[in-house]
Write the structure tokens for this entry.
Amino acid sequence: MTDADIIAETRRLEQEKRKLDQNMKRIANENKQLDNRIKENQEKLKMSCQLPHMVANVAEILDVEDEEEEGKEGSGFAIKKTEQQKKKKALVIKTTGRGTYYLPVLGLVEPEDLKPNELVAVNKESFVVYEKLPAEYDSRVKAMEIDERPAENYGDVGGLDKQLQELQEAIVLPMTHKEKF
């Protein structure tokens, strides 16, 4: 190589280095912006998870076709719906307030982890699913469980003989004499 060739190659490499340095700065800046967005979204998620929750039952899990290509059919291009077309999952839940809701976006739980009739915690306002609850979590059942046997008996209650008799007839007798009821 001649001196002129070496100088030209050096200039080309320096120019390429400047382009790569600019590219690296741009990527570092984008990375910083994405990190900031991740932090903001994590904070928003943390705040929304602290909102009041509600218990709901999974009624149905639906396969919904992704409609990204909608509206392009009139453009003159023929669109073939293939097996590659993305399938999304949607959810139908029944809340403790007797409401039934369709959720096109599930939330923080993967659809593969959910089954019909399972309990989930949802946001009271947006119905976003936060977590899958264990089967024994149902607050209605929890409220009826007895942790320990009460020490009181019917003799401890005075002056309510008629009410005690009605209570025994309505609750105790159907449990002790099932065949009569």
In short: The longest helix spans residues 3-49.
